[in-house]
Amino acid sequence: MASSEIYEDIKENLRNTLSHLKASIKQNSLRRLGGEERQKCAQEIARKSSQAHILIKDLEYEIYQAPVTYQAEMNREVKRLKYDLETIERSMESKQLPYSKQVTFGKGSSSQSQDVSDQTSLMLGHKSLQRASASITRSTVVAAESEGIGNEILDNLGQQREQLHRTRDRLEDTDVELTKTRKLLLSINRKVITNKIFLVFIVFVELGILGGVVYIKFFGPK
User: Fold this and answer.
1) The dihedral of CA 151, 153, 155, 161: what is its sign?
2) Residue 33 burial by CB count (10 A; 0-12/13-18/19+): exposed, middle or buried?
């Protein structure tokens, strides 16, 4: 998965965590709780606060992995989120609510921090699987559409092939007709030439007869 996608997932998760902390500040009434219930509520708020700090560290790591051209904008976003967290923690401190810098879990503190990190990793992994599944679904749809388009193209090519075959047959028939017409024109041309020669011969014969008649009439013996 691309680093930018991991960054966006972590940022969204951090915003959700901050929203949860804000809601806890508004709704929480630790002073009215007692004993185990108070401790459990305090630990939940502290866990969310600790998770927010871990997510900020993860964001800073992703900024380090990102291209230089994007790092400035990403740093500005993380600074705003840090400021929001600090504002929330000041409010928690003023209301004597525990947060990650003040609450100690004793022997289990490292394991709880590890649990938060594991939960974050699991959440990111789950979102990655959801995106991969959606991507596969989109790819399947695109493949089906591409197959349909390919079939349509094949059908069109088949129809065009048939049209080309019919056109070729018509051209062949036209060529045969043109050959016959050419032969007919040649035959007519020969007949015309023959007729012309015959006419010229008749003209010469008539001229000869006419010349003979004139000679006999004017120059023959009287």
Assistant:
1) negative
2) middle
Kindly calculate the radius of gyration of the chain based on its CA atoms and give it in whole angstroms: 51
Q: How is residue 135 written in tokens?
A: 């991507």
The H or E element spanning position 164 is: helix 109-219
User: Which residues, including other chains, have CB under 8 Å from residue 219's CB and lie 6 or more apart?
Assistant: none
- The helix (H) or strand (E) run that includes residue 79 is helix 68-94
29-46 residue pLDDT tens: 555 555 566 667 677 777
What the block records as the tokens of 192 is: 């015309």
Neighbours of 16 (CB within 10 A): 14
* Weakest-pLDDT range from 38-47, 186-195, 210-219: 38-47
Tens digit of each residue's pLDDT (9 = 90 or more) over 101-140: 433 333 444 454 455 455 555 666 666 676 677 778 888 8
Supply angle C-alpha 18, 24, 29, rounded to 5. Answer: 160
How much is the average pLDDT of 72-93?
A: 85
pTM of this prediction exceeds 0.70: no
Task: Count CB-CB contacts under 10 A for residue 148.
Answer: 10
Q: Quick one: CA torsion of 10, 12, 13, 14, rounded to 10 degrees? A: 90
Tokens 């993380």, residue located? 78
Half-sphere exposure of residue 55, counting CA atoms within 13 Å on the CB side? 30
